[in-house]
């Protein structure tokens, strides 16, 4: 055992777990909004009309692409990314989309975009929850 002036040297090890993300790891809604808008513009055209099955499959494609790109933009994978996409006909009706979640407001966040074409609307919600 090593000593300094007769006192033993005690090695101190800090815990390796973290309760909050580093600054470069944080989820920024502005980046997620830009990604979601880019994917929506690439996947939806002004003249497209979809039946129920086609709308479901295009919504899944959009959700998967947004989730993959948002996950890739984060430096480390400690965030759980959940994407919800709603596609509907744009026919002068009102639509309200609500969501609730229990999370830590210091680390978790969300982004939301609405993309409208002549014939349809698309609402994309991106949720990011930090996993310890």
Describe the model.
By secondary structure, this protein is of the alpha+beta class. The chain contains two helices and five strands; from the N terminus they run ββααβββ. It has helices at residues 29-43, 52-73, and strands at residues 3-4, 7-8, 79-89, 109-116, 120-130. The strands form two sheets. Strands 3-5-4 form a three-stranded antiparallel beta sheet, with helices on one face. The chain has a two-stranded antiparallel sheet with strand order 1-2. β4 and β5 form a beta hairpin. The longest helix is centred in the middle third of the chain and has 22 residues, at 52-73.
Give the C-alpha Rg.
22 Å
Mean pLDDT equals 88
Terminal CA distance: 36 Å
| Count of alpha and pi helical runs | 2
SS-based class: alpha+beta
Strand content: 25-35%
Helicity, in percent? Answer: 25-40%
Order of helices and strands: EEHHEEE
Q: Can you tell me the overall shape?
A: elongated
Strand order within the widest beta sheet? 3-5-4
How many β-strand runs? 5
Low-confidence stretches: none
User: What characterizes the major β-sheet?
Assistant: 3 strands, antiparallel
List the keywords.
single chain; 132 residues; alpha+beta; two-stranded antiparallel sheet; 5 strands; elongated
Could you give the topology of this structure?
Blueprint: E1 3-4, E2 7-8, H1 29-43, H2 52-73, E3 79-89, E4 109-116, E5 120-130
Antiparallel strand pairs: 1-2, 3-5, 4-5
Helix pairs in contact: 1-2
């Amino acid at each position: 055992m090593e000593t300094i002036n007769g006192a033993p040297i005690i090695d101190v090890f800090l815990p390796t777990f973290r309760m909050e993300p580093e600054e470069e790891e944080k989820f920024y809604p502005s980046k997620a909004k830009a990604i979601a808008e880019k994917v929506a513009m690439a996947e939806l055209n002004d003249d497209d009309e979809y039946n129920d099955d086609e709308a479901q499959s295009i919504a899944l494609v959009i959700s998967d692409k947004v989730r993959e790109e948002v996950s890739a933009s984060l430096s480390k994978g400690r965030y759980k990314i959940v994407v919800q996409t709603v596609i509907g006909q744009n026919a002068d009706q009102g639509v309200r989309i609500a969501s609730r979640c229990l999370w830590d407001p210091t680390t978790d966040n969300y982004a939301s975009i609405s993309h409208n074409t002549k014939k349809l609307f698309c609402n994309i919600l991106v949720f990011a929850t930090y996993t310890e």
